[in-house]
Write a structure and sequence with these properties.
The chain is α+β, with helices and mostly antiparallel strands and 339 residues long. Among the domains are: 101 residues, Alpha-Beta Plaits; 69 residues, Tetratricopeptide repeat domain (Serine Threonine Protein Phosphatase 5, Tetratricopeptide repeat, Alpha Horseshoe). 61% of the residues lie in helices and 13% in strands. The protein contains 16 helices and five strands. The protein has a five-stranded antiparallel sheet with strand order 2-3-1-4-5, sandwiched between helices. A hairpin with a 2-residue loop joins strand 4 and strand 5. Helix 8 runs antiparallel to helix 9 and helix 15 packs across helix 16. The N and C termini lie far apart (67 Å).
Amino acid sequence: MLFKIIIQGKIEFGTQKAYDMAIKMYKSRTENYYKSDVLFETEEIFFPEDLSLSIPRLVKQAYDKSFKNTSALLEYIVQFGVSGEMDIWQLEEGKVLHFKHLEPSSDKVAVQQYLKGKNLLKESGKEEEAITALDKAIAKYDRHAQAYERRGKVNFILKKYHDALRDYEKCLKLDPNNPYAYYGKSMVLLHNKKLEETIESLQLAIKKSVALQPIHWNARRNKGKIHLELEQYPEAEFELKLFAKRKFPEENRNFLWKREGHFMYGKVLLALEKFSEAIEQFELALDIDKGHDSIPKAEMLRYRGLAKQKAGQNGFIKDIKDAAELGDPKAVELLKEIA
């Protein structure tokens, strides 16, 4: 039976010795362990010019044995690396059967300091320690794209926006397929109010990621939000429709942004005079109890009332009245106009 396989990522080996060993072991295991039943020939994925193993993105149908062989082989070879990461998926009819995130975890200083910095970043208040560790990783291997990306995020958290942008751009110079760096760069550009450039960076984050990654949907939601702010309604509709229709498990970071996604999509549909569809989106937003957004319930009720009024539906006055009672000043003004 054939399965859909997606593989993307890049691993750098840092030295000629490590690169040569990785190729040697790849060839040996391909021939002796896996009887050549793997998805890649050596020359397809190894690149001597930067001593790397690179798979920008592979999407193909493959048998289970070929997938398992390739997955196990890549997992082994990655450990010869000094930087980089690789993601591997096996799917059947859209359902993820297997997923692996691979990155070096050897005792090399650059590897260990990067992992230390990456883990410290998850702890609030540990930002300076994280930067120290990432600095050490970069000092040991100055082509460490992921260390630059993580340091960029720490600098953004610390509101060192110039330093953050420098780190993201350095990462992208080394690894132009890194969606996290494009997303991080977009957040700096958004802070600097460069909205058109923000949109370009978010589009690249979308392009360089796959729909199985949370970063893909973070980028779509934020891109839709900016298009809405710029009153670019067709573009906003495209992004937010995709986000609103997507189902996320609770552990996915996008799960708690669904309310905002439905609400923004409703506003876009209202602007496009698709009133019945807008009502549906506002109702979906109102049905969600919690989220990362700070949208007042009163504002959602007011918008649903406006959509009902435009659609010629009953109940719009009640929605606007409820919004006014919750303290929404615009709803209070609307009630006066209606009266």
